[in-house]
Protein backbone atom coordinates (compact mmCIF):
# COMPACT_ATOMS: atom_id res chain seq x y z
CA UNK A 1 0.00 0.00 0.00
CA UNK A 2 2.82 2.41 0.81
CA UNK A 3 4.47 1.84 -2.56
CA UNK A 4 1.20 2.66 -4.29
CA UNK A 5 0.71 5.70 -2.05
CA UNK A 6 4.12 7.04 -3.05
CA UNK A 7 3.33 6.67 -6.76
CA UNK A 8 -0.23 7.90 -7.37
CA UNK A 9 -1.67 8.37 -10.85
CA UNK A 10 -4.75 10.22 -12.05
CA UNK A 11 -7.79 8.66 -13.72
CA UNK A 12 -7.02 6.97 -17.06
CA UNK A 13 -3.30 7.55 -16.41
CA UNK A 14 -2.75 4.59 -14.06
CA UNK A 15 -0.13 2.95 -16.30
CA UNK A 16 2.52 2.34 -13.63
CA UNK A 17 -0.09 1.33 -11.07
CA UNK A 18 -1.56 -1.24 -13.45
CA UNK A 19 1.96 -2.47 -14.29
CA UNK A 20 2.71 -2.93 -10.59
CA UNK A 21 -0.52 -4.88 -10.05
CA UNK A 22 0.20 -6.97 -13.15
CA UNK A 23 3.67 -7.91 -11.84
CA UNK A 24 2.23 -8.92 -8.48
CA UNK A 25 -0.38 -11.14 -10.12
CA UNK A 26 2.11 -12.81 -12.47
CA UNK A 27 4.42 -13.49 -9.51
CA UNK A 28 1.56 -15.47 -7.97
CA UNK A 29 1.40 -17.71 -11.04
CA UNK A 30 -1.77 -16.24 -12.50
CA UNK A 31 -2.46 -14.61 -15.86
CA UNK A 32 -4.02 -11.12 -15.75
CA UNK A 33 -5.86 -9.69 -18.73
CA UNK A 34 -5.64 -6.01 -19.64
CA UNK A 35 -8.89 -4.08 -20.12
CA UNK A 36 -9.47 -0.43 -21.01
CA UNK A 37 -5.74 0.40 -21.27
CA UNK A 38 -5.14 0.92 -17.53
CA UNK A 39 -7.47 -1.68 -16.04
CA UNK A 40 -7.06 -5.43 -15.68
CA UNK A 41 -8.86 -8.54 -14.50
CA UNK A 42 -7.63 -11.84 -13.15
CA UNK A 43 -9.56 -15.08 -12.60
CA UNK A 44 -8.78 -17.50 -9.76
CA UNK A 45 -9.85 -21.08 -10.60
CA UNK A 46 -12.34 -23.11 -8.58
CA UNK A 47 -11.70 -26.46 -6.90
CA UNK A 48 -11.74 -28.23 -10.26
CA UNK A 49 -9.05 -25.91 -11.63
CA UNK A 50 -11.46 -24.19 -14.00
CA UNK A 51 -12.12 -20.49 -14.49
CA UNK A 52 -15.09 -21.11 -16.80
CA UNK A 53 -18.73 -20.59 -15.94
CA UNK A 54 -20.44 -18.48 -13.26
CA UNK A 55 -18.09 -16.57 -10.99
CA UNK A 56 -17.93 -14.08 -8.13
CA UNK A 57 -16.14 -10.76 -8.70
CA UNK A 58 -14.18 -8.51 -6.34
CA UNK A 59 -13.45 -4.96 -7.50
CA UNK A 60 -10.67 -2.57 -6.45
CA UNK A 61 -10.09 0.91 -7.89
CA UNK A 62 -6.67 2.27 -8.88
CA UNK A 63 -6.76 6.04 -9.38
CA UNK A 64 -5.72 9.01 -7.25
CA UNK A 65 -6.78 12.67 -7.00
CA UNK A 66 -5.25 15.98 -8.19
CA UNK A 67 -4.31 17.06 -4.65
CA UNK A 68 -0.93 18.13 -3.28
CA UNK A 69 0.03 15.91 -0.35
CA UNK A 70 1.30 17.77 2.72
CA UNK A 71 1.35 14.98 5.31
CA UNK A 72 5.16 14.71 5.65
CA UNK A 73 4.75 10.94 5.94
CA UNK A 74 7.79 8.86 5.00
CA UNK A 75 5.72 7.31 2.21
CA UNK A 76 4.10 10.56 1.01
CA UNK A 77 3.37 11.03 -2.67
CA UNK A 78 6.38 11.58 -4.89
CA UNK A 79 4.19 12.98 -7.67
CA UNK A 80 3.62 16.74 -7.35
CA UNK A 81 -0.04 17.67 -7.26
CA UNK A 82 -1.28 14.07 -7.12
CA UNK A 83 -2.25 12.12 -4.00
CA UNK A 84 -4.08 8.98 -2.94
CA UNK A 85 -6.45 11.07 -0.81
CA UNK A 86 -9.43 8.76 -1.26
CA UNK A 87 -7.86 5.48 -0.19
CA UNK A 88 -7.63 3.72 -3.53
CA UNK A 89 -4.06 2.70 -2.72
CA UNK A 90 -5.55 0.78 0.19
CA UNK A 91 -8.28 -0.70 -2.00
CA UNK A 92 -5.73 -1.96 -4.53
CA UNK A 93 -3.51 -3.38 -1.78
CA UNK A 94 -6.51 -5.14 -0.21
CA UNK A 95 -7.44 -6.57 -3.59
CA UNK A 96 -3.96 -8.00 -4.03
CA UNK A 97 -3.99 -9.25 -0.43
CA UNK A 98 -7.32 -11.01 -0.93
CA UNK A 99 -5.96 -12.56 -4.12
CA UNK A 100 -2.92 -13.94 -2.26
CA UNK A 101 -5.05 -15.34 0.55
CA UNK A 102 -7.45 -16.95 -1.88
CA UNK A 103 -4.83 -18.86 -3.83
CA UNK A 104 -2.95 -19.83 -0.64
CA UNK A 105 -6.01 -21.45 0.91
CA UNK A 106 -8.66 -23.92 -0.10
CA UNK A 107 -9.88 -23.44 -3.65
CA UNK A 108 -13.21 -21.59 -3.86
CA UNK A 109 -16.39 -23.40 -4.99
CA UNK A 110 -16.76 -20.90 -7.85
CA UNK A 111 -14.09 -19.07 -9.83
CA UNK A 112 -13.35 -15.59 -8.47
CA UNK A 113 -12.61 -12.64 -10.74
CA UNK A 114 -10.56 -9.71 -9.45
CA UNK A 115 -11.35 -6.44 -11.21
CA UNK A 116 -8.72 -3.71 -10.90
CA UNK A 117 -10.54 -0.68 -12.22
CA UNK A 118 -9.28 2.71 -13.44
CA UNK A 119 -11.01 6.09 -13.28
CA UNK A 120 -13.42 5.69 -10.38
CA UNK A 121 -12.86 9.34 -9.48
CA UNK A 122 -14.28 10.39 -12.86
CA UNK A 123 -17.14 7.89 -12.49
CA UNK A 124 -16.33 6.52 -15.94
CA UNK A 125 -14.13 3.53 -15.19
CA UNK A 126 -16.73 0.96 -14.19
CA UNK A 127 -18.90 1.57 -17.27
CA UNK A 128 -15.85 1.17 -19.51
CA UNK A 129 -14.79 -2.04 -17.77
CA UNK A 130 -18.31 -3.46 -18.06
CA UNK A 131 -18.41 -2.63 -21.76
CA UNK A 132 -15.03 -4.36 -22.19
CA UNK A 133 -16.36 -7.57 -20.61
CA UNK A 134 -15.37 -7.39 -16.94
CA UNK A 135 -18.72 -8.82 -15.85
CA UNK A 136 -18.92 -11.70 -18.32
CA UNK A 137 -20.14 -14.80 -16.41
CA UNK A 138 -20.17 -12.83 -13.12
CA UNK A 139 -23.18 -13.61 -10.91
CA UNK A 140 -22.31 -11.36 -7.94
CA UNK A 141 -19.86 -8.53 -7.36
CA UNK A 142 -18.26 -7.18 -4.17
CA UNK A 143 -16.42 -3.94 -3.44
CA UNK A 144 -15.61 -1.61 -0.59
CA UNK A 145 -14.27 1.75 0.50
CA UNK A 146 -12.09 2.95 3.36
CA UNK A 147 -13.86 5.56 5.48
CA UNK A 148 -12.13 7.66 8.15
CA UNK A 149 -15.47 8.58 9.76
CA UNK A 150 -15.51 5.18 11.45
CA UNK A 151 -13.00 3.65 13.92
CA UNK A 152 -10.42 1.21 12.58
CA UNK A 153 -11.86 -2.28 12.42
CA UNK A 154 -15.43 -1.14 11.77
CA UNK A 155 -17.39 -2.84 9.00
CA UNK A 156 -20.50 -1.04 7.73
CA UNK A 157 -22.75 -3.85 6.56
CA UNK A 158 -25.99 -2.33 5.35
CA UNK A 159 -28.78 -3.69 3.18
CA UNK A 160 -30.23 -1.29 0.62
CA UNK A 161 -28.81 2.10 -0.34
CA UNK A 162 -25.28 2.89 0.85
CA UNK A 163 -24.28 5.55 -1.71
CA UNK A 164 -26.31 8.17 -3.51
CA UNK A 165 -26.86 8.72 -7.19
CA UNK A 166 -25.10 11.77 -8.58
CA UNK A 167 -25.75 13.96 -11.61
CA UNK A 168 -23.95 17.11 -12.70
CA UNK A 169 -26.09 20.02 -13.84
CA UNK A 170 -25.03 22.93 -16.03
CA UNK A 171 -27.35 25.92 -16.48
CA UNK A 172 -26.47 28.48 -19.16
CA UNK A 173 -28.32 31.73 -18.51
CA UNK A 174 -28.83 34.27 -21.28
CA UNK A 175 -29.71 37.90 -20.57
CA UNK A 176 -28.79 41.12 -22.33
CA UNK A 177 -25.53 42.92 -21.65
CA UNK A 178 -25.18 46.67 -21.37
CA UNK A 179 -23.70 49.57 -19.42
CA UNK A 180 -24.14 49.49 -15.65
CA UNK A 181 -25.50 53.06 -15.77
CA UNK A 182 -28.44 51.94 -17.92
CA UNK A 183 -29.76 48.72 -16.35
CA UNK A 184 -33.24 49.39 -17.71
CA UNK A 185 -31.88 48.62 -21.16
CA UNK A 186 -30.41 45.30 -20.05
CA UNK A 187 -31.40 41.90 -18.70
CA UNK A 188 -28.94 41.22 -15.91
CA UNK A 189 -27.68 37.62 -16.10
CA UNK A 190 -26.21 37.92 -12.59
CA UNK A 191 -29.68 38.66 -11.20
CA UNK A 192 -31.16 35.80 -13.25
CA UNK A 193 -28.51 33.34 -12.06
CA UNK A 194 -28.79 34.46 -8.44
CA UNK A 195 -32.57 34.10 -8.57
CA UNK A 196 -32.24 30.58 -9.95
CA UNK A 197 -29.87 29.64 -7.12
CA UNK A 198 -32.29 31.00 -4.51
CA UNK A 199 -35.26 29.21 -6.07
CA UNK A 200 -33.33 25.93 -6.03
CA UNK A 201 -32.84 26.27 -2.26
CA UNK A 202 -36.49 25.39 -1.70
CA UNK A 203 -36.54 22.49 -4.14
CA UNK A 204 -35.55 19.70 -1.74
CA UNK A 205 -37.32 21.25 1.26
CA UNK A 206 -40.68 21.65 -0.46
CA UNK A 207 -40.69 19.03 -3.22
CA UNK A 208 -38.93 15.92 -1.91
CA UNK A 209 -40.39 13.54 0.67
CA UNK A 210 -38.58 14.42 3.96
CA UNK A 211 -37.90 10.72 4.47
CA UNK A 212 -35.83 10.55 1.29
CA UNK A 213 -32.34 12.09 1.56
CA UNK A 214 -31.45 14.46 -1.27
CA UNK A 215 -29.30 17.50 -1.98
CA UNK A 216 -29.06 20.06 -4.78
CA UNK A 217 -25.88 22.14 -4.61
CA UNK A 218 -24.72 24.84 -7.01
CA UNK A 219 -20.97 24.91 -6.56
CA UNK A 220 -19.93 27.25 -9.37
CA UNK A 221 -21.35 30.48 -10.78
CA UNK A 222 -19.48 32.42 -13.44
CA UNK A 223 -20.70 35.70 -14.95
CA UNK A 224 -19.61 39.10 -16.15
CA UNK A 225 -16.66 40.64 -17.94
CA UNK A 226 -16.17 43.96 -16.11
CA UNK A 227 -17.32 45.72 -12.93
CA UNK A 228 -19.28 48.36 -14.83
CA UNK A 229 -20.97 46.13 -17.39
CA UNK A 230 -24.27 44.34 -16.82
CA UNK A 231 -23.56 40.69 -17.53
CA UNK A 232 -25.24 39.26 -20.60
CA UNK A 233 -24.75 35.61 -19.70
CA UNK A 234 -23.87 33.37 -16.79
CA UNK A 235 -23.09 29.72 -16.16
CA UNK A 236 -24.05 27.73 -13.09
CA UNK A 237 -22.78 24.22 -12.34
CA UNK A 238 -23.74 21.94 -9.52
CA UNK A 239 -24.54 18.47 -8.30
CA UNK A 240 -27.79 16.60 -7.63
CA UNK A 241 -27.68 13.67 -5.22
CA UNK A 242 -30.32 11.36 -3.81
CA UNK A 243 -30.90 7.74 -2.84
CA UNK A 244 -33.74 6.48 -5.04
CA UNK A 245 -34.71 6.56 -8.71
CA UNK A 246 -38.05 8.36 -8.28
CA UNK A 247 -36.47 11.28 -6.43
CA UNK A 248 -33.68 11.42 -8.98
CA UNK A 249 -36.16 11.75 -11.86
CA UNK A 250 -38.17 14.36 -9.95
CA UNK A 251 -35.14 16.53 -9.19
CA UNK A 252 -33.79 16.42 -12.73
CA UNK A 253 -37.18 17.53 -14.03
CA UNK A 254 -37.70 20.28 -11.45
CA UNK A 255 -34.20 21.77 -11.67
CA UNK A 256 -34.67 22.31 -15.41
CA UNK A 257 -38.18 23.70 -14.91
CA UNK A 258 -37.08 26.15 -12.20
CA UNK A 259 -34.15 27.40 -14.28
CA UNK A 260 -36.30 27.97 -17.36
CA UNK A 261 -39.23 29.47 -15.47
CA UNK A 262 -37.15 31.84 -13.37
CA UNK A 263 -35.06 33.11 -16.27
CA UNK A 264 -38.11 33.59 -18.50
CA UNK A 265 -40.00 35.47 -15.79
CA UNK A 266 -37.12 37.95 -15.49
CA UNK A 267 -36.85 38.49 -19.22
CA UNK A 268 -34.05 36.07 -20.08
CA UNK A 269 -33.67 32.40 -20.91
CA UNK A 270 -31.90 29.35 -19.54
CA UNK A 271 -30.62 26.12 -21.04
CA UNK A 272 -30.15 23.20 -18.65
CA UNK A 273 -28.06 20.11 -19.40
CA UNK A 274 -27.17 17.12 -17.26
CA UNK A 275 -24.10 14.95 -17.57
CA UNK A 276 -24.37 11.20 -17.24
CA UNK A 277 -24.03 10.42 -13.55
CA UNK A 278 -24.17 7.18 -11.60
CA UNK A 279 -27.16 5.53 -9.93
CA UNK A 280 -27.26 4.80 -6.19
CA UNK A 281 -25.37 1.83 -4.75
CA UNK A 282 -28.02 -0.67 -3.59
CA UNK A 283 -26.82 -3.70 -1.64
CA UNK A 284 -28.87 -6.84 -2.26
CA UNK A 285 -30.41 -8.66 0.74
CA UNK A 286 -28.81 -11.99 -0.19
CA UNK A 287 -25.26 -10.73 -0.52
CA UNK A 288 -25.56 -8.41 2.47
CA UNK A 289 -26.36 -11.48 4.55
CA UNK A 290 -23.32 -13.27 3.13
CA UNK A 291 -21.12 -10.27 3.92
CA UNK A 292 -22.45 -10.10 7.48
CA UNK A 293 -21.57 -13.78 8.02
CA UNK A 294 -18.08 -13.16 6.59
CA UNK A 295 -17.44 -10.25 8.96
CA UNK A 296 -18.57 -12.31 11.95
CA UNK A 297 -16.38 -15.22 10.81
CA UNK A 298 -13.23 -13.08 11.15
CA UNK A 299 -14.26 -11.69 14.53
CA UNK A 300 -15.59 -8.39 13.27
CA UNK A 301 -18.71 -6.57 14.36
CA UNK A 302 -20.94 -5.58 11.41
CA UNK A 303 -22.70 -2.26 11.89
CA UNK A 304 -25.51 -0.59 9.92
CA UNK A 305 -25.01 2.68 8.11
CA UNK A 306 -25.74 5.27 10.84
CA UNK A 307 -26.95 8.03 8.49
CA UNK A 308 -27.64 8.39 4.79
CA UNK A 309 -24.50 8.67 2.70
CA UNK A 310 -24.85 11.12 -0.18
CA UNK A 311 -21.39 10.42 -1.56
CA UNK A 312 -21.36 8.69 -4.94
CA UNK A 313 -19.49 5.61 -6.12
CA UNK A 314 -19.31 4.23 -9.67
CA UNK A 315 -19.44 0.68 -8.26
CA UNK A 316 -23.17 1.34 -8.70
CA UNK A 317 -22.82 0.61 -12.41
CA UNK A 318 -21.84 -3.00 -11.72
CA UNK A 319 -24.95 -3.42 -9.58
CA UNK A 320 -27.12 -2.38 -12.50
CA UNK A 321 -26.07 -5.66 -14.17
CA UNK A 322 -25.58 -8.15 -11.31
CA UNK A 323 -26.44 -8.10 -7.60
CA UNK A 324 -23.75 -7.57 -5.02
CA UNK A 325 -22.53 -5.81 -1.92
CA UNK A 326 -20.44 -2.73 -1.08
CA UNK A 327 -18.83 -2.42 2.37
CA UNK A 328 -17.29 0.56 4.14
CA UNK A 329 -14.22 -0.12 6.30
CA UNK A 330 -13.26 2.00 9.28
Automatic annotation (TrEMBL):
Gene Ontology MF terms: hydrolase activity; metal ion binding
Cofactor binding notes: The Mn(2+) ion enhances activity.
Cofactor(s) in the UniProt record: Mn(2+)
Superkingdom per UniProt: Eukaryota
Segments forming domain Peptidase M20 dimerisation: 168-259
Record has Metal-binding as a keyword: yes
Pfam families xref list: M20_dimer, Peptidase_M20
Binding site for Mn(2+): 86, 88, 121, 145
Hydrolase is among the record's keywords: yes
Keyword list, A-Z: Hydrolase, Manganese, Metal-binding
Protein family membership: Belongs to the peptidase M20 family.
Name of the molecule in the record: Peptidase M20 dimerisation domain-containing protein
Organism: Monosiga brevicollis
Lineage: Eukaryota, Choanoflagellata, Craspedida, Salpingoecidae, Monosiga
Amino acid sequence: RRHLHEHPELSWQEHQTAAYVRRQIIALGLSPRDLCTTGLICDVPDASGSTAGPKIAIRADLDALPIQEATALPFASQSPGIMHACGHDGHTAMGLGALRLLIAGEAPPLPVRFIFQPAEELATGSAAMIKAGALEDVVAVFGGHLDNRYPCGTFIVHEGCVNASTDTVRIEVQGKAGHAARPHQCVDAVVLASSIVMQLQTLVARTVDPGRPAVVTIGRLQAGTAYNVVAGNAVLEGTIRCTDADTRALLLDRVAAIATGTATTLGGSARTTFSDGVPPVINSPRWTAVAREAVLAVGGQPQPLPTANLGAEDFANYLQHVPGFFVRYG
